[in-house]
Amino acid sequence: MSLFNHQTLVLHPDFAGLEDFMISLPDRFLHDEGVVIHNGRNQLRRITYQGADYVVKAFRRPNLVNRFVYGVLRPSKAKRSYDHALLFQQIGVGTPQPVGYMNIRKGLLFDRSYYVTLASTCPYRYEDLFHRHFDYEEEVLRAVGRVTALLHNHGYAHKDYGRANILFEKTPEGIRLDIVDLNRLAIGPLDMKAGCKNLERLPATPAMHRIIAEEYAKARGFDAGECYRLMVAYRSTQPGKEEKEIEALKHYKEKI
């Protein structure tokens, strides 16, 4: 890298030997290596390297103003994702094992960043609860309530806590969750209202809300009925939610 093209690379101590892989990421994306998992504002690819599967998130180049902001004043989204994953691990909340991140800057202007994790073993996303039958779905919902409460008790609120960002699998030990897309995290005390509002982007039928509310309230010492009322009320404010969830109800058996 020249004086004007600067690269910052951070690797988790357990993956110190992956420097060459990290440096090669721009070229791998240029040549469409791996399998695209998501292609939107940012792109996620699953890439196999030396027998292991990694998920690489390439954040898009920001606009000109934000290129300066991220180049000089603010940590990149990749760095925030990495740092937040370590926070989650410290309190026992599942997230794919962070491997590292890389920022690329051109002069004072930020260019691109990459965040790398091991691929999660969880085969399902929360939204799959609406499209197929799971005989352990109540266990999943209770796990969501408990894990959300654990995050909130530590003052962490995932700011994109939606249907695609909670992964799950059933193991002999119980339900395992992996929370993903961690670059946007609010840190600070959360009371009952703020905690329930943090779930507003998560679709749920009334039966699902009751189960989540029961488990969340139990873990935080709140009233379950009031948590349920707040969750339903906050969810109802989300634009376009009614049509999607009415359709989803056709595929989900009510329990209340």
TrEMBL record:
GO terms for molecular function: kinase activity. Pfam families: Kdo (PF06293). SUPFAM superfamilies: Protein kinase-like (PK-like). InterPro entries: Kinase-like_dom_sf. Keywords: Kinase, Transferase. The keyword Transferase applies. The keyword Transferase applies. This is Lipopolysaccharide kinase InaA family protein. It comes from Bacteroides gallinaceum.
